[in-house]
Amino acid sequence: MKTTKILFFFALLLSICSCSNDDSPNDVTNPTITTDNPVTYTDNPYATLGGKINDAGNQNITETGVCLALTANPIAVNDNNNTSIAITATNNAFSDTFDFAGFEGQLIHVRAYAKINGSLIYGEDKTFIPLEANNPNSCNTVIVNTDITTATTWTTGNVYMVENWIDVDAPLVIQPGVIIKFKNGNAGLEVFAKITANASETNPIIFTSYKDDSYCGDSNGDGAASTPAKGDWGRLTMRGDQHGSIFRYCKFLWGGASNGGVIVVNTGTGNIHDFTFDHCTFAHTAGTNTYYTAAFNGGQMYDESISVVTNNIFYDNAIPIYIQAKYSLNPNNVYHNPDNAAEINKYNGIFVYGGGLGGRSVVYGETEVPYVFNVGGNATLSVGSSDFLKIDSNVILKFGQTSASLDLGDYSNNANISGTAVFTSYRDDTRGGDTNGDGSTSSPATGDWNGYGYWTTGHGSYVWVQNNVFYDSH
Q: Where is the signal peptide (predicted)?
């Protein structure tokens, strides 16, 4: 590993390598080049950069490397705006690690480049922020202990230490790479105004515990004496009408104090909870087998086009997410740690408050985990005259109360249910896993739930469906 110290920006006389001044890709259309996702290190200002040439064939590759700048789309020249670094390729792939001391906390753009047949081609523009060495003072700390009442920006390179409950009453912009640490279980955000936390995969925004030394060092100054634990801090409560709050590539870690979840969707005006959670990670949240302790308590979301929950990752929580029966949860969310597929959630299912569909067309399409109807108040899924229910192939619905059922009533034509969908008991570990989280302590039995049925035409006899239906009363 090379740890060349990077001292390049705005230095006209500095020459790290000799690169062509040809700053256009010319007519090379094949092959192409991909820029690697930059890898940064939490305990030093190093970053690993590189790329890969695709479909090179027998073309003449004379140079490969990376271009760097403080602005988008750097080019392969050395001037006061750009720097390029040659890296030798092996099997058309190349990478190296560099020391960015002096540029900690700055947003840097990188593109892979290659000179092929005398012409330059470039990969995608990607960004990263070098971090300081892992020590108590590795990031500048900003104390937050008063409500946000005017438009505010939390800026890259800082740790924002939230010491108590903070009302966000005015727009808050959180820049990519910002770390937010919460001091205790009585610290969190009550969100009444728009938050814009729009980050990237390589430069996420972190919401975590005061004791979490893995992000910007030992903020509580006790060395290794403390480590983060579930419930170390409170939550973000999405109150009122959000007016377009967005959380993209954010990580919510070690929250859920008093088993209250880390995101709670609370009362708004009518049907409006206008926000987006996309490509976020929810992990290590305190909770129990009670629905309202879910890491993402979305029980007051009704419309998936307004309350957007997509491409998120849930692992090492109790219950990952709680929704209403009328909400179509996107099936592109993930319920395990992508780096360790065995690390899931204790009650690994989508917990659903049952009832009618509110005159909406609703789709159940998730197949990684089951939908669990074991929520206090209503564990039945029913279809009315103005509803439409679609259950996709291989979807599993589990029911946890003896009175619970899938009831199509007089409206069986208002449903499109796949023949491979499964309906079973909450205690059935053979279908959809150990959703009640008790290992082999409990086992399913006939009568665990009521069943799946509908009335014949004209409210005639009630028909109980038997295909792929298990442990019901009928």
A: 1-20
